[in-house]
Design a protein that fits this description.
mainly alpha, 39% helix, Type 1 dockerin domain, elongated, 4 helices, 0% strand
Length: 102
C-alpha cells in the first residue's frame, strides 16, 4: 500500500497535479526528481543548433580563452574520448561541411 501511494505521489508531482486538499498523504515521503537536460552533440554553446559558433567557441577555449557560462563541455566532446580537443573541432567543422556525422 505504501509503495502504491509513493508512486502515485511521485507521478502527481512530476505531472504538476495537486492532491484535493493540497497536501500529500501523511505516509508518503517527499522525493526529489532530477531534471533531465537533453544534449545535442556539437552544440557547445547550448543554443539548440550546431553551427560555426560552436566551432569558434571550442577553438577559443582551446586557445585558453575563458569559457562563457553557456559552454556545454559534454556537447563539445563529439569524439567521446573524454577530452575536448582539436579532434572535436575538426569533427564538428567536417559535420558542417557535410563530410562527417556526429
Amino acid at each position: 500500500m505504501k509503495k502504491n501511494l509513493l508512486i502515485a505521489a511521485l507521478f502527481a508531482s512530476v505531472c504538476g497535479w495537486a492532491w484535493a486538499d493540497n497536501a500529500a498523504p501523511k505516509n508518503v515521503a517527499a522525493v526529489d526528481v532530477p531534471t533531465i537536460v537533453p544534449t545535442t552533440p556539437g552544440d557547445a554553446n547550448g543554443d539548440g543548433t550546431v553551427d560555426i559558433e560552436d566551432v569558434t567557441l571550442i577553438f577559443n577555449i582551446l586557445r585558453h580563452k575563458p569559457a562563457p557560462e553557456n559552454y556545454k563541455e559534454k556537447n563539445a566532446d563529439v569524439t567521446g574520448d573524454g577530452n575536448v580537443d582539436i579532434e572535436d573541432v575538426t569533427k564538428i567543422f567536417n559535420y558542417l561541411r557535410h563530410k562527417a556525422t556526429l
